[in-house]
Amino acid sequence: MIKCVILDDELLAISYLKLLCDELNVEVIKAFNNPKVFLQEINNIDCDLCILDIEMPGMNGLQVAELIKGKHIIFTTAYKEYAAEAFDLDVVDYVRKPIKKERLQQAFEKAEKLITEKEKNNFFEWNTNLGKTVIFTNEIVYIKTSEIDSRDKDIFLKNDSELILKNLSFKHLSELLPQKYFVQINKKEMVNTKHIKVFSSSEIILDMNSNDGNPLKLNVSEVYRNSLMDKF
Asked: Which Gene3D superfamilies did the record assign (predicted)?
């Protein structure tokens, strides 16, 4: 079941959306009629999807969406002139008011597909130096070719631990990882872009330290430069 949060300044609109969600087997975790309160709480709410009204006093839904991280978004509005801006934000869908049940169901089906794809890439299982191991992709900071055996990959995690992935090519590895975040930067290294703090055309700095205690710097080769820039 999809878990969603609603933001709309009109209480009647919230009640109607709750009713539709219930009929479409979508769980409403919480509803807000104030954008500022919504932003204060949303990062602590376990949900997959945010349904945002666009036209609201003080702060509109487009501005709110730009401040949300890691949630899928459906916009609702009575004003068609916001459509172009809404889709520029790479949201799931844009539903015109008055909302029809069939149209909202289409939006939920799109969201469910995206959520399923995201969950598939949350982890993968591979043979490591510890045996068969489940690795959560959001814990990975960076990966490099092993200096002991070039067929293996050294993987560095957020908790400063390391694993050795046995007999795994970067090509196969890229199929196991979320392509939105992981990118190869040279022949021997791949990074999670969420951990890049500084980057130029030839170098990146990660939010982890090297053995000398300084921020880790990695070279970006010309062959992979465009792929890195595309992620940003």
From this structure: 3.40.50.2300, LytTr DNA-binding domain (2.40.50.1020)
Q: Alpha-carbon distance 190 to 170, whole Å?
A: 8
Residue 188 token pair: 């021997």
What DSSP line would sit under 187-229, residue for residue?
Answer: TTEEEEGGGEEEE-SSEEEEEEE-TTSSEEEEE--HHHHHHHH
Secondary structure letter of residue 100 according to DSSP: P
What domains, with CATH codes, occur in the chain?
Answer: 3-120 (3.40.50.2300), 123-231 (2.40.50.1020)
- In the structure encoding, which two tokens stand for residue 64, read together? 């709110």
Longest dimension (CA), the chain: 64
pLDDT for 152 equals 96
Strand partners, 23: none
| Beta carbons of 183 and 223 less than 8 angstroms apart | no
Beta strands 140-145 and 123-128 are: unpaired
Query: Element (H or E) spanning 108, and its range?
Result: helix 101-120
Residue 57 preceded by cis peptide, ω within 30: no
pLDDT range class, residue 185, cuts 50, 70, 90: very high
Q: Which of 43, 50, 70 is closest to 4 using CA atoms? A: 50
Share of the chain above pLDDT 90, in %: 62
Q: Would you state the pLDDT for residue 86? A: 67
| pTM beyond 0.85 | no
The residues that bridge with 126 in the sheet, in sequence order, are: 133
DSSP tag of 69:
-
